[in-house]
Each structure stands twice: as structure tokens, then as C-alpha cells.
TrEMBL record:
GO cellular component, one term: membrane
Basic and acidic residues composition bias: residue spans: 55-71
Top-rank lineage group of the source organism: Bacteria
Location of region: Disordered: 43-71
Protein name, per record: Type IV secretory system conjugative DNA transfer family protein
Organism in which the protein naturally occurs: Ferrovum myxofaciens
Classification lineage: Bacteria, Pseudomonadati, Pseudomonadota, Betaproteobacteria, Ferrovales
């Protein structure tokens, strides 16, 4: 049927691998690409980095600080 099956096992050297840092373009998009990867690490659910009124401002500060460290 022409399908290709790819095994993903992070603990095995023989499995498929993905390194998001290899996707960073070394041109005018470099900073944007790095910031996007940092956002995915700090906010993996995509809920945003700004707190709602019920959340502590310290929580948002921690997210922003983590993003700055990564970029």
C-alpha cells in the first residue's frame, strides 16, 4: 500500500528522532524560530503566558523568566 511506519522510541538509538533545534533557520528568521521553540517549551499547552485574574502574577513572571533564559 506504500505506507511508511516510523518507530519513535526516545530511549533507542535505532528509532526515529526529532531535534527541534535543527529546524532553526540560520537567516533572518533565526530569532523568531528560537522564540517559537522557547514558547513551546515554556507553554506546551498553548494557553498563553498572560495570567488570568485568578492566577498569581508570580506564575506569569516565572514563565516569562524561563522564556528569557531559553532565548
Amino acid at each position: 500500500m506504500g505506507q511508511r511506519v516510523v518507530k519513535f522510541d526516545p530511549t533507542s538509538a535505532d528509532s526515529a528522532r526529532f531535534n527541534p533545534l535543527q529546524e532553526i533557520r540560520l537567516d533572518a528568521n533565526l530569532i523568531k524560530d528560537v522564540q517559537n521553540i522557547a514558547t513551546m517549551i515554556v507553554d506546551p499547552d498553548g494557553k498563553g503566558l498572560n495570567p488570568t485574574p485568578r492566577e498569581s502574577p508570580r506564575f506569569s513572571h516565572g514563565e516569562e523568566s524561563g522564556k528569557l533564559v531559553l532565548t
